[in-house]
Amino acid sequence: MLTNGLIETEPLELEDIFISLESLPLPPSSRDFNGNAADLISIPDNPVLQVPDGFTVNVFADNVFPESEEPRWLGLTPTGDVLVTSLNVNQIVLLRDTDGDGAADFSQVFADEENGLNDPFGMVFTEDFFYVGNIDSIVRYPYNIGDTQINGTGEQIADLPLSNQHFTRNLAISPDNQLFVSIGSSSNLRIEELPGASVQVMNLDGSNQQTFAFGLRNPVGLDFNPITNQLFTTVNERDWLGDDLVPDYLTGLEQDEFYGWPYVYLSPDFPDPFITIENPDFVPETQTPDFVAETQTPDVLFQAHSVPLGLQFYDGETFPEEYQNGAFVAFKGGFNRQEPTGSKIVFVPFDENGNATGVYQDFLTGFLDVSAEPETTWANPVGLQVLPDGSLLFTDQGNNRIYRIQFPENETIEGTNDNDNFQSGEGDDQLFGRRGSDRLTGNGGDDTLIGGVGRDTLNGGRGDDTVNGGPGSDRLFGKSGNDLLIGRPGNDILLGGDGNDTLEGGIGRDRLNGGAGNDQLTGGGSIDRFIFNTNDEFQTEDVGIDTITDFSQTQGDIILLDLTTFTAINSDSGTGFSIAGEFATVTDDQLAETSEAVIVYNSENGNLFYNPNGNEDGFGSGGQFATLTNTPELEAEDFFLRS
After folding, report:
1. Among 287, 353, 492, 614, which is least packed, fewest CB within 10 Å?
2. What whole-number distance in Å separates Cα of residue 78 and Cα of residue 245?
3. Where is 231: in which H helix or E strand?
4. 119-156, pLDDT tens digit by residue?
5. For residue 158, which of 141, 190, 181 has the smallest C-alpha distance?
6. HSE (CB half, 13 Å, CA atoms) of 12?
7. How far is Cα 173 from Cα 312, in angstroms, rounded to an integer?
8. Where are the domain boundaries for CATH 2.150.10 in the chain?
């Protein structure tokens, strides 16, 4: 279930998106039932997401619920544990990251049906109670700081109306200790009595329930502006008016405000032309309530049918200044649109006085592919939660995951003269081992690791790292990214890992293995081994084409071929080829393709080939795997075969 796998990302440029009332199209002459939701597909093998430069995305939790269940909403206990509810199971799961690596490694059921859960959604805490928004009620349970499981069936403090369409009941507690609950409408456009299509407010014991704001077709996200303390909500507007009507929205609420549904949308000036279809006895000219003339225009309009759900004002400390006190919104994506939209996280800027600027920006994209036929997505973002460490979680209802967005801070870590063992975070970090036999791990980011004197083990981790062993016989691992590994004096082991790496052994008997990617290998002084091994049968994408810059027979350099990778070699392990015909030298790459030898070297350009299909045209499952730039006169004895 639990992993902290980092997702590959590309930089995303922030662009303001502004939708004005003046830009809205006229409603269609008849109801528009066209449109489709993007097909949900499984997670790609090598997914790529787009986020602003400097942010990272990793998997916080995988397979949170049993197969076919869907994580929806997030909450946070007073001690920082993460709570998550499911759409299809009456259960709340507690997740904890015990080792601080950005992924949950502890999971247990916090509450379930035996505790009285009934389609649970919103969750909030006070000092003494835990509150849950069921589909038909608000229930509170006694809670002590540190509890990891709820006991009993709790106390039902408020009845809520059942709904056949919008069934999520979110909760929020105001700074002055009032309890708010969002209640969606039971239909697309039918007139209904309160408390449907509203936000209700009550005391913490459920008493004195009142309508706070209404005419909100489906309010879901609830959060308080950290500057003004005003309650904001995300609202899913009506369907069947075409691709660009009606925009969903984010807005701040005040007592007794009306927001149009179902009579009008976004303004008193936009009556719904089809209200009598779902309300045949309604006469707009004589029966429209007076409060419709006071319909409020929302603060920020979103692209129609985006389905904005999760809402979190950012109150952490690690994101850049431009995100402080702004709001993040999760767009799940809807169905009533010819070209699907949603499947992303957006950011809504607020000014220094706590006012929305009216625009929003794409913040995380890459799930939705509108160029596919049919259109596809591999995630449906729903819930959001800012963690105490400043990172942002969001649930993926589609593929049963929770992701974590972080803006890593850059660290400088200085070691001692003892044997140090430390690792950095996800930023572009500098780690210095000094003296001693040190273990340094860079993790994410483009790190610089310098071992200093001693037998060090340096692991660059993710990112494009510079790993410098310093004096001593060191072990250097580039891992993923395009890394620079420098052995310096000593008998070093350099493993590039994934990416196009540069390995420099320095003085000493070094072993260099570039790994996947097109790597540059420089052995330096003394006897060096250039190793080609993937622990599996040869595949070009796993080996790459490495460049060996200084192969020296006089120094005793060796090219080591592992027989688990080069499976067509039948010679015995050891120096050279016991079957003489398995190595050959040619003077043209085309001659290499039809050579009967398995390992073929072009002495004119230094290209080295694996040719498992003999004198048949092409290299079959093999191909070029190295170039020796100084074009030495290679002989069979320059190879070592390892079984």
Report:
1. 353
2. 41
3. strand 231-235
4. 999 999 999 999 999 999 999 999 999 999 999 999 99
5. 181
6. 22
7. 14
8. 412-642
